[in-house]
Amino acid sequence: MAETQPEKIVTEETQTKPVEQNTTQVVEEKKEGDDQIIDPYSGVNLSGKAIDYNKLIEKFGCSAIRPDHLERIEKLTGQKPHHFLRRGIFFSHRDLDLILDTYEKGKPFFLYTGRGPSSDAMHLGHLLPFIFTKYLQDAFNVPLVIQITDDEKFFHKGDDKTDLEQYIKYGIENIRDIIACGFDPEKTFIFSDTGYMGGEFYKNVVKIQKHITWNQLKGIFGINESDNTGKASYPAIQAAPSFSNSFPHIFGKSKDVPCIIPQGIDQDPYFRMTRDVAFKLRYPKPACIHSKFFPSLLGINAKMGASDPNSAIYLTDTPKQIEKKINAHAFSGGGKTKEEQEKYGANLDVDVPYQYLTFFLEDDEKLAEIG
Ligand code: TYM
Question: What is the pTM of this model?
């Protein structure tokens, strides 16, 4: 698909056209009636309908994670692949094979992931990529960089246009939760954009910005002329950690150590753009590995978000609050009446407590038994 054909040169002419299948073009058109608009800013599944992840793979031009990937990972790491892989929770990728080839040849790669600190509390969905990244760091024993995008949330959220400090503070709170995932302190670098911007990192930001046009920003992120210009400058900042020379204290001058980016599928537009620019800068394209969405408590197709605190479990909730939320608000797949339940059983596909277990109960047999 689009950005997997790097030989073709993008001209100004192709850059002004929407969705081009056979160029390096990354502009994506949001069609009317498209009920699967998934991007970093629309939130999850605005239509309330089930997300068709196969359709998403096709639309985004990524690839499905196949059973042979799992076999290969097991062979290379000497351990059973993480249950997020076994259960198809991490379901899609870009260039995972290249990263596995790199590892097989004994060459280095690194992990990159991030968090946009929109509040002082992360919810369980935010945690998924971090839990998975921790597994990858342990299994492959590689360096990890974690970007805290206090600038991004300031540009996109701040009702109070002066309160950057608040997002910086949220970032610090979120870092505590992230650290608690247990990353290797010797191999992990966590930075906030407002703290780290400068030097080699900023040089990459600048180079990336030079390759991104307004048309691309409009197409990929839905930004328009009335938006603050921070929104336009930001995507290059999320792209820059994909390149090893942004971190001279880890990689020296080396610009060709490839990375793989664990992320929720909503973040993919950033990295489609990044991969396009990487080709132009003669950097390795970042590989990606995408997860499905962790469902809202209110139902697998409902929206999880700060507007309804009962839609999500936050890392700051007490065990009592969690218990109450689950008992009072979790959508049940049970039959509507006793008779229905006895006749048809529960629909586990929509039963939120069961779905949560698929994410957090590692033991396959126990899960089957509960099911
Ligand atoms: P943020 O803070 O919105 O989300 C952090 C990470 O959590 C994922 N995520 C989810 N995954 C599964 N189910 C959900 N319900 C759910 N909600 C959020 C997101 O996809 C993300 O991976 N711009 C980013 C910060 C960032 C980043 C990165 C993320 C900077 N660099 C590199 C991933 C990789 C953001 O605001 O994420």
Answer: 0.90
Amino acid (one-letter) located at 243: F
Sign of the CA dihedral with 114 first, then 116, 119, and 123 last: negative
Tell me the H-state helices in 188-298.
193-196, 199-210, 214-221, 229-239, 248-251, 268-281
Comparing 341 with 319, which gets the higher pLDDT? 319
Question: Hey, which of 93, 134, 153, 263 would you mutate to test ligand 1's pocket, going by the most ligand atoms within 8 Å of its Cβ?
Answer: 263
Reply yes or no on whether the pLDDT at 206 is more than 50. Answer: yes
Q: Please tell me the residue having the least CA distance from ligand 1 atom 3.
A: 116
Q: 3-state class of 299 per DSSP?
A: strand
Calculate how far, in angstroms, residue 24's C-alpha sits from the geometric centre of ligand 1: 25
CB neighbour class for 161 (10 Å; exposed up to 12, middle 13-18, buried from 19)? exposed
How does pLDDT run across 259-280, given as a tens digit for each residue? 999 999 999 999 999 999 999 9
